[in-house]
Amino acid sequence: MVKVTPDPPLGDTPRDRAAVHRTIDRYLTKPHNLPTPEAGYFTPNADLSFEDALARASDLLNCAAATAHESADGLDGPSRALVHSVMHLIEMAKVMVDRSLDCLHPQ
C-alpha cells in the first residue's frame, strides 16, 4: 500500500519546544479560576423568590422534556427507550414542581 500523506516532521526544533512549554505552563502549572463545587456553574439571582424559582424550574423542565423528545425521534432500540425514560423522569419532576406552585396559590 502506498501512503499518499507523508509523515509529519518529528518536531524537535526550538520553536516546537517553546510551544510545548507554553502548553504545559498554560494547562498544568498555572492555577485556574474554576468555580467551587458549592457555587456550581449556574447561580440564581439572590433576590429570586421561591415562587419565581419554582416557575423557572418548571420552564427549564419543559425545555428538557422537549429536548429529550426531539432527541428520541432519531433513535431506536435501547437508546430510544433510555431517552423515553429520561422524558418520564423529567415529566414527573415537572408535575411535582407544578404541584408546589399550585400549593402556593390554592384555587
TrEMBL record:
This is DUF3077 domain-containing protein. It comes from Pseudomonas spelaei. The lineage of its organism: Bacteria, Pseudomonadati, Pseudomonadota, Gammaproteobacteria, Pseudomonadales.
